[in-house]
Amino acid sequence: MNFYFAPMESITMYPLRNIHKDMFAGSVSKYYSPFVTAAKSKHFKNREKNDILPVHNTPFFEGNVSSLVVQIMSGNSETFLWAAKEIAQLGYKEINLNLGCPASTVVNRHKGAGLLADPDYLDSMLSEIFEAKENTPELKDIEISLKTRLGIADENEAGKLMEIYAKYPISELTVHARVKDDFYKNTPRLDAFCSSMKRYRECGGKAPICYNGNIFSKKDYEDTMDKFESNGITNEVSSMMLGRGILENPALARELTGGEVLTAPELKEYLTKLYAGYEEYIPEDRNVIFKLLEHWAFIHTHFANCDKYLKAIRKARSKGEYLAAVRNIFASCEFK
Ligand SMILES: Cc1cc2nc3c(=O)[nH]c(=O)nc-3n(C[C@H](O)[C@H](O)[C@H](O)COP(=O)(O)O)c2cc1C
């Protein structure tokens, strides 16, 4: 099983990706950028462009094979193809189309999971993309993968979607086993995921399949694998994408591949490096701390009875206050 680091808007930016790759090398085979928007104006936002510039992502270009996948948010083939060419020119080898974002600002513009509402339109968009890819020299060698949900409101929508995906030479199909209306709530729809994958194969879909949803621990992984086995799809799923689980436990992929569990000194080093990484491009202490708080929202689960100490981290307004509060939580709370 391969493990991938999921795209997470505003969180999995280049400092995090580089530091994670440096410290937990080998356990994650691909990282995804949060989506870059393929706007009608044919300009990337500065923040998004900055995040994918090769100069900020040098560890991912070693050996001339980029293990960083850039994700595009687009609602039509024209802007997708423009963005894909720009990204190909930067040296990336795989581009991923976002068909899963449930935010209403995205869905209402018929992007992200919004594209799942009109399968015929999605079919024509993919047809235009793959036809143009064949006829565009800059795009010939680039791989295009999809990250989708099972539908908008009902998992039975997935059958039709799988018939469509099976028609195109996508390089990988990642499925977040929820529908748009689930957002990130409830448990993933594992039975629907399994039957959809069978449908995808029945329709001739050949792409490797990546599962995504609620893998936080070895137990979650094993339970999910059991489910795949009882549904006869174990051999069909070659990778798992980890999102909130790997933010909570940066060593999760290592643990799932039989390696050591996360240690407190490792987590401390990771947080110290993240602070330094964010400090390089975020001007004020306060804003660096806000960025780190996005991580603490996941990481605090490692500390028992930590409310008081966590509050001090949240209240920190200077680097000194923040570092002292972090030292305190490590010194005072049991690490689990
Ligand atoms: C804050 C946040 C931001 C996200 N941003 C993106 C994104 O930019 N692109 C994307 O495809 N998915 C995005 N996702 C979805 C995750 O990649 C992943 O599919 C989801 O969290 C389910 O996986 P998990 O249960 O392992 O977290 C985001 C999720 C969260 C919670």
From TrEMBL:
Sequence ranges assigned to domain DUS-like FMN-binding in this UniProt record: 5-281
SUPFAM superfamilies to which the protein is assigned, alphabetical: FMN-linked oxidoreductases
Source taxon at top rank: Bacteria
Signal peptide positions on this chain: none
Active-site residue numbers: 101
Broadest EC class assigned to this enzyme: oxidoreductase
Binding-site residues for FMN, renumbered to this chain: 71, 147, 176, 243-244
Keywords, comma-separated and alphabetical: Flavoprotein, FMN, NADP, Nucleotide-binding, Oxidoreductase, tRNA processing
Pfam families the UniProt entry points to: Dus
GO MF, any single term: flavin adenine dinucleotide binding
Gene3D superfamilies from the UniProt entry: Aldolase class I
Cofactor: FMN
EC number from the UniProt entry: 1.3.1.-
Family the UniProt entry places it in: Belongs to the dus family.
Record's function text: Catalyzes the synthesis of 5,6-dihydrouridine (D), a modified base found in the D-loop of most tRNAs, via the reduction of the C5-C6 double bond in target uridines.
Protein name according to UniProt: tRNA-dihydrouridine synthase
Organism: Butyrivibrio hungatei
The organism's taxonomic lineage, starting at the top: Bacteria, Bacillati, Bacillota, Clostridia, Lachnospirales
